[in-house]
Design a protein that fits this description.
With about 400 residues, the protein is mainly α. It is about 80% helix and about 0% strand. It has a single domain, classed as MFS general substrate transporter like domains (Growth Hormone, Chain: A, Up-down Bundle).
Length: about 400
């Protein structure tokens, strides 16, 4: 083991790029499983749409607490890498316990604990990757692209495995999370920048008009995605009778369109500023909800699903870069976590729990119509609001 570590230290590509890209690939693999298949698993246990909505609303709610905790710990830690490892280890230990649960209360507690840990894995990985980009000259885009590949591959694998038994998704989750620890052991330590006694005031973010505007814009978009991620897999697999294997393929198609975007992201960042970019990505969201609201045609739904690959990753990509450039060093991880709390915490919570109660009353298509109207309004308002945005400094990011 010592000889291997010495060899890696003498080769920059092995020392920096290979370990972190491997972590992204594997972590995005296991993170994709509950994101796609947890609603189906809960449905297989006989839970109603209201119960599923309540349980899935715990995901962002738990993420709020978890991301505050882990983000703060990372900024103060001597090793952000070690904090990331803790979140992965705890997640892989908790996930198999789902196989023993059968009651609403048991799922309630398990979801709270699992997503308290898991929710910080992706933003912590991003924070570490941005540090690598700045300190070691390693580009973020290829690393993020490799993570996307892992996400895409696992959605298909899990989809075919779930055809045999939906229970197997938690076994795959734990095994993949366990393997993720191996390359993480070879990642150089990234130290938190917050000195002892130093504090980062997250309230200061609300005093910046640029942050407030993009957070509100992205939050409203993510409210609609909160509903979609909670109930689309059930609607697609059960109501439309498409099955989990085709669901995995559709998810793969959604993810594949991230590839060309990430390949050309540097040029895109150079030519398009943040406001018109967000408006473009938001418009793609609008198109998607309009189509879902107006048809039950599988070919059309599958075709327009590909817009997710550009729209949601584009919004998250621009936000992550903007935060990385505009936040002070002592609060970079906390700021990324705060962004995750707002967009994948509070916003997704509203979408999940609201959808759970509205679905039995209005049905899927009508709620997609509501989502389209909401996105249309936010696009108009955001285009009118005048806010000055800092130019994104690309460097090696």
């Amino acid at each position: 083991m010592k000889n291997i570590k010495n060899y890696i230290k003498e080769n920059p590509i092995l020392k920096y790029f290979l370990p972190l890209s491997s972590v992204f690939f594997l972590s995005y693999m296991f993170l994709s499983i509950p994101a796609t298949y947890l609603p189906l698993y809960l449905s297989s246990k006989g839970l109603s749409s209201v119960q599923i909505g309540l349980l899935l609303s715990l995901v962002p709610f738990s993420a709020i607490a978890g991301q505050f905790f882990w983000g703060n710990a990372a900024d103060k830690s001597k090793s952000k890498t070690k904090i990331l490892m803790y979140t992965i280890i705890l997640s892989l230990v908790i996930s198999p316990i789902f196989l023993l649960a059968n009651s609403f209360l048991a799922f309630f507690l398990l979801i709270l604990v699992l997503f308290f840990c898991q929710s910080s894995t992706a933003p912590l990985s991003d924070a570490i990757a941005f540090e690598y980009a700045i300190n070691y000259g390693i580009k973020y885009n290829p690393i993020r692209l490799i993570g996307t590949m892992g996400f895409a591959i696992m959605t298909v694998i899990a989809g075919f495995v779930a055809v045999k038994s939906i229970n197997y998704i938690f076994i795959i989750y734990s095994l993949t999370a366990l393997i993720t620890i191996i390359p993480l052991l070879f990642c150089p330590i990234v130290v938190g920048h917050r000195k002892k006694g130093q504090k980062f005031n997250t309230k200061a973010l609300f005093l910046k008009k640029d942050f407030v505007a993009i957070f509100l814009f992205s939050m409203i978009i993510n409210i609609t995605y909160g509903f979609h991620t909670a109930f689309f897999s059930i609607y697609f697999s059960n109501t439309l009778n498409a099955g989990t294997a085709l669901l995995g393929i559709v998810t793969l198609l959604c993810t594949l369109l991230e590839f060309p975007f990430l390949f050309f992201a540097d040029k895109f960042l150079k030519k398009v500023s943040i406001k018109p970019a967000l408006l473009f990505f938001g418009f793609l969201c609008l198109i998607r909800w309009v189509v879902y609201a107006s048809t039950s045609s599988l070919p059309l739904i599958i075709f327009f699903s590909i817009f997710q690959g550009i729209s949601i990753v584009g919004i998250n990509y621009y936000l992550a870069y903007y935060i990385a450039n505009s936040s002070p060093p002592e609060g970079k991880a906390t700021s990324q976590m705060f962004n995750a709390i707002l967009n994948f915490g509070i916003a997704r919570f509203i979408g999940c729990i609201g959808g759970g109660f509205l679905l039995p009353v209005f049905g899927m298509k009508n709620i997609y119509s509501f989502c389209a109207i909401i996105v249309f309004i936010v696009l108009i308002v955001f285009s009118i609001v005048k806010v000055d945005y800092k130019k994104i400094i690309r460097k090696n990011l």
